[in-house]
Amino acid sequence: MSEPAHLSCQEFVELVTDYFEQAMPRDERERFDAHLAVCEPCTRYLEQMEQTIRAVGQLSPEDLSPEAESLLLETFRDWKSS
Amino acid sequence: MQATTASDEAQLVAALRERDERAFAELVRSYHAALLRVARIYVPSTAVAEEVVQETWVGVLRGIDGFEGRSSLRTWVFRILTNAAQARAKREGRHIPFSALDQPGRVPEPAVNADRFLAPDDPVWPGGWVVAPARWSPADRLVAKETLEIVSQAIEQLPPNQRAVISLRDIEGWGSDEVCNVLGLSDSNQRVLLHRARSKVRTALERYFQGEAQ
Q1: DSSP string covering B58-72, please?
Q2: For residue B120, how far is the Cα from the chain centroid?
Q3: Do A31 and A25 touch, CB atoms closer than 8 A?
Q4: Is A81 touching B (CB cutoff 8 A)?
Q5: In angstroms, rounded to a whole number, what is the distance separating the alpha carbons of residues B42 and B24?
Q6: Owning domain of residue B14
C-alpha cells in the first residue's frame, strides 16, 4: 500500500482547519468524510472546534483606552491645523 | 468590525479628506485593537506596538489625500502599519525570523497532544483516541463570561503571529484573502497559523471544562 486508505484520529485532528476552509484535495476530503462517518470521538472533536470558533467570535475587540483615544485626536487636530 | 460597502468607504474617505474628526475617531475605534495585534508580530512589546500604531495613524492622515482606492481602505491602513512595524523592527535591530511568518510549518506543533492517541502501530486502533473528547454541554456555558475569559487568556498566550491571525479571522471576521494580503502570508501558512491558534484555544477550553467537572 503506497497511500493509506484510512485516516487515523491523530491525522484527522490536523485536517480540521483545512476542512473548514474548504482547502482539501478531493481524495483527502473523501477520506476525511469517510472517517467522520464512522468515528464518534472525532465527530465530537469537530463539534468542539466549531464551538471554539464560535466562542472566539463572541469576543469583542478591546476598547481603545481614553488616553490613547485623546492622544490620537490630538494628533488629528495637529494634522488638521497644519 | 463591520464590513463596509464601497459607498460607505467612499464616504468615510471623503469625510477624512474634509478633516472630519468624527470620521477619524470612528476609523480609530474600528481598527485600533487589530492594528495593535498585528504590530506585535513585528515588535517585541505592547509599548512599542502602541508607538507603531500611533505612527500608522499619522501616516494614514498624511496619506489620505493621495489614497487612490486601489485596495480597500482597511487593507491600505494595515499596509501602512506593516511597513511602519517592519521599519521599526529594523531600526531596533530586531531580526524577524524567517520562520515567524513565512514558514510556520517548519516546527511541528500537534493540534492535540500525542499522548491522547494510541501508537501508530497499535494492533487494534492505530492512532485512535485513548479517551474520546468529552461532550461540552450545555451550550450556554460556551458564552458564559468566565468561559470567554478563558478564551481571551488563551489567545493572549499565543505567539504573536498566531494571535494576529486568529484575531483577524475569528474576532474581526476578515476573510483569508485579506489576512494573507495584509500579513504577506501564503494561503497554506495562514491556515497553519489559524489551525494552531484554534487548536490551542480548544485545548484551553477542554482543560477548563474538565477541571470544572472534577
Answers
A1: HHHHHHGGG---SS-
A2: 34
A3: no
A4: no
A5: 25
A6: 6-91
* Residue recorded with cell 490613547: A68
Q: How many Å apart are CA B86 and CA A18, to the nearest integer?
A: 30
ipTM field: 0.87
How do residues B41-55 score in pLDDT, each as one tens digit? 888 888 999 999 999
Structural domain including A50 reads 9-81
B30, B31, B32: which to substitute to probe chain A, counting the most A Cβ within 10 Å? B32
Q: Counting every residue, how long is chain A? A: 82
Beta bridge partners of B19: none
Say if residue B201 is in the same domain as residue B171.
Answer: yes
Exposed e or buried b per residue across B104-140, where buried means at least 16 C-beta atoms within 10 angstroms of its C-beta: beeeeeebbeeebbbeeeeeeebbbbeebbeebeeee
The verdict on a CB contact (< 8 Å) between A69 and B28 is yes
Cross-chain Cβ contact B62/A79 below 8 Å: yes
| Residue-averaged pLDDT of chain B | 88
pLDDT at B123 over 70: yes
Contact: A48, B62; criterion CB under 8 Å: no
d(CA A38, CA B213): 28
Residue of B nearest to A61 (CA): B33
Nearest CA in chain B to A21: B191
Q: Is A26 on the interface with B (CB under 8 A)?
A: no
**Tally of domains in chain A:** 1
